[in-house]
From TrEMBL:
Name the record gives this protein: Transcriptional regulatory protein
An MF annotation (GO) of this entry: DNA-binding transcription factor activity
Source organism, top-level taxon: Bacteria
GO terms for biological process, alphabetical: response to stress
Length: 158
């Protein structure tokens, strides 16, 4: 199906198939949602925030966690998470402190501005969810969310 007579791969067919697989669809949706969230936060005055910073913000323990824990949750290196934390610290959203039990650990806590950012983020997401619901319909959006919740739950139990 994807190979021609001489064994060459039909790149058009391959691209079509790739565009239909779950991973590609989830990645594309995540890119669009991520851009929409950042645009919404910029409109609320959070101009220092970039799309990569949402990796830290969506994975950190809001009660305070370490860079290492946040990196593990996000599936990126401690060094990459440390750079994101430094950016958000410089922008006034995070405090980075020495760990209580381990001087090598760096604990992340939201500043008052960081808490406002998180509240704004929830409001932006609520607005976006209403927009997405209008795009695909209430029942389809609800079914999408329910299916993704079930899939994530089952995958986490593996």
């Amino acid at each position: 199906m994807m190979q021609g007579n001489e064994g060459a791969v039909d790149l058009v067919a391959l691209e079509t198939e790739r565009g239909r697989n779950l991973r590609q669809l989830l990645l594309a949706a995540a890119r669009h949602v991520g851009r929409d969230v950042v645009d919404g936060l910029h409109a609320r005055g959070h101009d220092a925030l970039g799309s990569t910073h949402t990796t830290l913000l969506s994975n950190m323990d809001l009660a305070g966690g370490t860079i290492t824990e946040t990196a593990e949750r996000a599936g990126i290196t401690k060094q990459a998470m440390g750079r994101l934390a430094s950016d958000l610290h410089a922008a006034g959203y995070l405090e980075i402190s020495v760990g209580e039990h381990d001087a090598r650990a760096r604990t992340l806590t939201l500043t008052a501005e960081g808490q406002r950012l998180m509240l704004d983020s929830l409001e932006v997401m609520n607005t976006l969810e209403r927009q997405y619901t209008n795009m695909i319909g209430k029942e389809r959006f609800a079914a999408l969310v329910e299916a993704l919740q079930a899939l994530v739950s089952d995958l986490q139990e593996r």
